[in-house]
Specification:
It is a single chain. This protein is 67% helix and 0% strand. The chain is globular. By secondary structure, the protein is mainly alpha-helical. The protein has helices at residues 20-45, 55-80, 92-97, 104-122, 136-141, 146-162, 174-192, 198-217, 223-234, 241-250, 254-265, 269-277, 282-290, 295-308, 314-323, 329-339, 343-357.
Length: 358
């Protein structure tokens, strides 16, 4: 090689040379990356604009997932650090490559939580009719009935703890929490490589079981559980429900609002959340009408939700509310009866119907 000239592509350079196996591995990795990019691009192009997630929601969803996985990683690593665990990088890329984070149940839960957070942030601050009167939840926290007061204070504490950065995993449904734990543990084990033995396997499994047991003990700290417990202690009568719904909404206490809807309709908290997050709000209108909430109360509740959520069509909502007086409440009661069925049963029936239609 002539002095001062850069080495050619086939001339040796200083430092370790790239062997043939390494070069083949790099080429295979590059081909796999290009293939994955093409497939991801094709899936992205196939999404209709009406179904495409807005950037704010996408970033929030990604951030929530990263925070959850990171929290689980740190918890499991702390439990196995003394077992010679070498330490690993983030496990989320492995879960994504395996397609695990595309699990519909996980996506549905995280998306619902993101949208509920966005809805709560968008709710207006109502000036109270009487500025000297405490909010509903604060009044309940000072209630003379000890059980009721304690339930209200538990909800206030749960809402406060839920705002902590590491609290997300404690708010997951138990089955989903356990599933995500096993995924993260498996990804950590794969990153440890062949040098790690069965001792690490056993330590990771024990750490997951301990985390699941701890989650069971902390289940009462979940905001949803605390809100439902408060409403059960309150035991509102049907004629009291409309007033309580509106007070919870005006106070921007979304978990309490959801628990009241769930209590009144006899449905699960997650089903009430689904009603509240429906952009069209048709199902929520039917349920509220079946619960004998006055038209004015339904209008205030739904228009407030509409103003807090840019996805909602105000004109279509107004037309739907105008129809309510002529609507038989039995239609809403039929919907409630369906929502009271086990969700697995409903999903299986829907899948069978799709198969028959295809």
């Amino acid at each position: 090689m002539v002095l001062g000239m850069a080495p050619g592509p086939f001339e040796p350079r200083d430092g370790p040379s790239v062997g043939a196996p390494d070069l083949r591995a790099r080429a295979a990795a590059a081909a796999a990356h290009a293939r994955a990019l093409r497939e991801a691009t094709a899936r992205d192009l196939a999404i209709p604009e009406a179904l495409r997630m807005d950037e704010r929601t996408r970033l929030a969803l990604r951030g929530m997932l990263e925070q959850l996985v990171d929290s689980l990683e740190r918890s499991l690593f702390a439990a196995v650090a003394l077992q010679g665990f070498p330490g690993v990088g983030p496990t989320l890329p492995l879960l994504q490559a395996a397609g695990l984070v595309a699990d519909p149940v996980l996506v549905d839960e995280l998306l619902a939580r993101v949208r509920l957070d966005q809805l709560a942030e968008g709710l207006p601050h109502h000036a109270p009719d009487d500025p000297t009167r405490p909010s509903l939840l604060n009044r309940l926290a000072d209630h003379p009935a000890p059980d009721l007061a304690q339930a209200a204070r538990t909800l206030l504490l749960a809402e406060s703890q839920a705002r902590r950065p590491d609290a997300g995993r404690w708010q997951l449904p138990p089955r989903l929490h356990a599933q995500l734990l096993w995924w993260v543990a498996a990804a950590m084990r794969e990153q440890a490589g062949i040098l790690a033995g069965t001792t690490l396997d056993e330590a990771l499994c024990a750490a997951v079981r301990a985390e699941i047991a701890l989650a069971d003990r902390r289940s009462g700290e979940q905001v949803a559980a605390a809100a439902l417990a408060l409403v059960a202690a309150l035991d509102p009568q049907p004629h009291e429900l409309p007033r309580l719904l509106l007070e919870a909404l005006r106070d921007r206490r979304v978990p309490l609002l959801l628990a009241l809807i769930a209590w009144g309709a006899g449905i699960a908290y997650a089903e009430a959340r689904g009603l509240l997050l429906d952009a069209g709000a048709e199902r929520l209108l039917l349920v509220l009408h079946a619960l004998a909430v006055p038209r004015e109360g339904i209008a205030e509740l739904c228009f407030t939700l509409c103003n807090a959520d840019p996805r909602r069509d105000l004109a279509a909502l107004a037309d739907a509310i105008d129809v309510l007086p002529a609507l038989d409440p039995a239609i809403g009661r039929e919907l409630i009866a369906q929502l009271q069925l086990d969700p697995e049963f409903r999903m299986a029936r829907a899948a069978i119907r799709r198969g028959q239609a295809g």
